Amino acid sequence: MERTDRLLSEMTLAEKLGQLTMIAADYAVTGPVITPYSEDAIRSGAIGNLLNLYGAGATQRIQKIAVEESRLGIPLLLGFDALHGQRTVFPIPLAEAGLFDPVTWEATARIAADECAGDGLNMTFAPMLDVSRDPRWGRIAESPGEDPFVACTFARAKTHGFQSASLAAPHTVAACAKHFAAYGAVTAGREYAPTDMSDVLLRETYLPPFEAAVEAGVAAIMPAFTDLNGIPLTAHVPLLRDVLRGEFGFDGVIVSDYHAIAELLNHGVAGDLAEAAALALKAGVDIDMMSDSYRLGLPEALQRNLVAMDEIDAAVRRVLLLKERLGLFQDPYRRGRADTGVTVQSRALARAVAARTLVLLKNAGNVLPLAARKIAVLGPLADAGGEMRGPWGGAGRPEDCVSVLQGLKDAGLDVRHAPGVAIDESDVSGIAGALDLCADADAILLCLGEAALMSGEAASRAYLGLPGRQQDLADAVFEKAAGKPVIVVLFSGRPLAVPELVSRAHAMLAAWFPGCEAGHAIADVLIGKVSPSGRTPVSWPRAVGQVPIFFGERPGGRPFNPKDHFTSHYSDVDNTPLFPFGHGLSYGDFELSNLRVEAGDLLTVKVDVTNRGARVAEETLFLFLNQKKPGVTRPLLELKDFGKIALPPSGQGTVTWTLPRPAAPAELFVGPNAAVSSLLSLSI
Ligand code: NOJ
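That is the input. Now the predicted structure with 1-deoxynojirimycin docked in place:
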């Protein structure tokens, strides 16, 4: 506090605005090249924070300029997007969400933080907490999926993982929860498009994960690029000031998204940079990322009385306090002492986590685990190690990633490979050659799906089928297979609408993007070393026209009734998803029984689980509630908790939950996914 006050009293306006500025430094082979600024801008205090610079040598060098060569010696915040790992790339967040395992969520964030800190970073723009119900939106890949309870649990685990008990510890980084709020509901799934939604939906679904992150002590928050109900989030006084800072009590740093403050001009709410800067500052945005609006606009905004110096000081104070909490004043070089890389331990964790995130969508006739040893491995994603990183691959290097082909070879399988087609091209001339390989194989593995960058930012899709000519390859293989098992490994950053592919494949694994140990993890599951335990954290549509599709719908006045035409339905497709939230098979065969509640102040819910299968496997169970409230409608199912249990063959166990007793009578449901037919229920 003392240091902050002293610094504030000594700072010129330019130095203050420098602290409110974050600029990208593109790391080139020869060293950092800071565009459009020079190291002189750091030396003069005109730039106080950077993003996109990593590596021990580079960060220490730049930090040294700030600390030892600028007038006030204030260290830099150095931020980077480590959404699912830094050097060790773990499965994409959507895949990891499907673990339903907060301990693992925290553990992978801890490794990412450690590697970020090793790279000299002190902030990461993660976790991403946008509830996403629209697979057209590419950023669903970065999200924890469709459910707010899952997103809240994910928010807490990730915040603790990145920040540990003390932000000052040398292996931690400041987490930045993003993108506040409702970005996942962009119109028609189109990236950066505006959002309009009711206060009820916003409060019930989109805000809670951010409140959970604030409660967990998240250091920073990033407003979304988008416009919500007519106000851009970057200038959203009701949400940033009143809800986030006021109601949730967030006193950390708000960092704008990339160039978002200047984009207030495009939104049409600001006439010039001074107005844009004033709007953002007044809403509570402390740091301008990449638009330089604060440095260029706030001096004029002060002159025009659009902002007061107090407001600038308050933002600077928050930035300095974060630097204090990170221990940067005490020892600016505590992070970035030595370059980190993938280690034996981090690789082992990446493999184990990736294997557990794979979702076995279908396994007709139990063709998996594979009995065959001679495998034709076809498709453009079989030999594509770099793609396995998915979007936002951190600082993960393609050469550190294991392809499916490599993984199968390492597992000792006899593999022959041809891609057949490219991921997204029209050339089908390779299909014949790929088919030739089927003749001499006992099973066919088709590795299909999206390229890594078909999801993530600015990657919306209107069609959710296989890109390019991959469907032609699949069709040709199904024709040619002659009774041999065809197993599809599907890579994607989102659910795909591929009902025909599902119906023709014998088995199908949704691999999402599994990260650097993809090939080993996939081999582990295919050969039965690991039983798949991933469960989809989003509903898979049958057709794009069903989107947004999610289990937490309200019943409506005319819920679907097959005997009554005038009830809610499509004339050309079922209402139900292709795969419901929570779907995922395993090599076990689980039976649930004896759902019961025990009396007490809290509600204790128990269900017995038996593994009738022949293998050790892990089951995931979900606890839903349907509560009636006077005057307002409620979703048919609200997720209240989840639990996992691993059991050997014939093993039995009990999953137990405790939760607050509902105020009014309610219906309780427990089951392996959100399909009503698979649930046990009890009135309480
Ligand atoms: C834009 C993205 O929306 C945001 O999530 C990210 O943190 C920044 N770019 C910085 O890379």
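Residues 51, 81, 125, 178, 257-258, 457 surround 1-deoxynojirimycin (CB under 6 Å).
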